Amino acid sequence: MPDCCPPSWCTIHLDRISGNLERALALVPAGRRFCAVLKADAYGHGIAQVVPLVREQGVRCIGITSNAEARAVREAGFDGALIRLRAATPQEIAGALPDRVQEQVACRATAALIRRHLDAGHYRTCAHLALNCAGMSRDALEISTRAGQDICRAILDRLGPHIGGICTHFASNDAAALRQSSDLFRRQAAWVIDNSDLSRAEVTVHAGSTLTLVSDTPVDTDMYRCGAILYGIVKPELGFRSTMDLEARVVSLQAYPAGAGVGYDRAHHLHRASRLACLSVGYENGFRRLARGVSAVSVRGALAPVLGKVSMNAIVADVTDIPSVRVGDTVRLFGGHDTAPITPPMAEAQFGTIMAELYTDWGRRNTRVHRQSVPAP
Questions:
Q1: Are residues 283 and 264 part of one domain?
Q2: Neighbours of 240 (CB within 10 A)
Q3: Residues annotated catalytic, as ranges
Q4: Torsion angle, CA of 357/360/366/369, rounded to 10 degrees?
Q5: Is residue 5 in some structural domain?
Q6: Cα separation of 159 and 139, whole Å?
Q7: pTM
């Protein structure tokens, strides 16, 4: 049952996602395609709400990782290409057949499994040959070796024209590394075409990510697969905006004397008499414990430092210098464009990780409120 009065919540700005997507599509070179990456429940924003925005702008390819995500995309009305962006188990492949998921293939066993589903009439789409290309060394095939080339030939013999794509994932977007990776991918994709009956015109050769799209280094790819850019994680100077705010409430205000200990183990001691606000958020909601001593929240247009250790369901902020704070006030833990925003660089410094991880974590741990546009003042 939905919580009608959640202790903390994420406000999802759908209009900003649409704006970010429009800007991203404008960056795609002429003749290239765009795959909107909605894995991890659209980076915590909610697939059901993001898919209509993708459809509105004519995007015909979506990237996911799990079967649940594939089902959610189809239930949201998307009928275009749906690519899984990692290797899958036999059970996942079988479970995703009704949703026509295009699987990655990089070994004989997966090729044989897909062939069986094809022969039975169950697999009704293409597969993508995943190449490592000195990349992630994660789940893709390394064809710089003779053994890898033999496996590649076996996959091509087994699946033939059902290979609709050749893909890789660049490990680094440093200019020199990206240039080398792109050149290697181009050569290896050409080797695959030359050693098979595949037609280059009928195969989508694709690589890259958000950082590849915004890089000044040109890459040889038919399609960019991008997620982070939709949620404003990169390039604010180009107009990309953060798409999620994390908020909670003041549940208590108390005055404490100088020297009082704050939080578990009295890890912080007040150097002055202070007015402290207890906030309805903790590590259960994704406010990480490592943020102790380096974090702040925004309330009444000012920043208030967080004191003491982070509890499961509560944190404490020093509002001594913000006398207007009242019980019930909304407190922003991330986001905002007012006089005291908690910006992405601030959040990444406080929590010691990247915004993609924070969004995914917050969006799954907290109630989500989807807003189409900012209300008029």
A1: yes
A2: 22
A3: 39, 264
A4: 130
A5: no
A6: 19
A7: 0.94
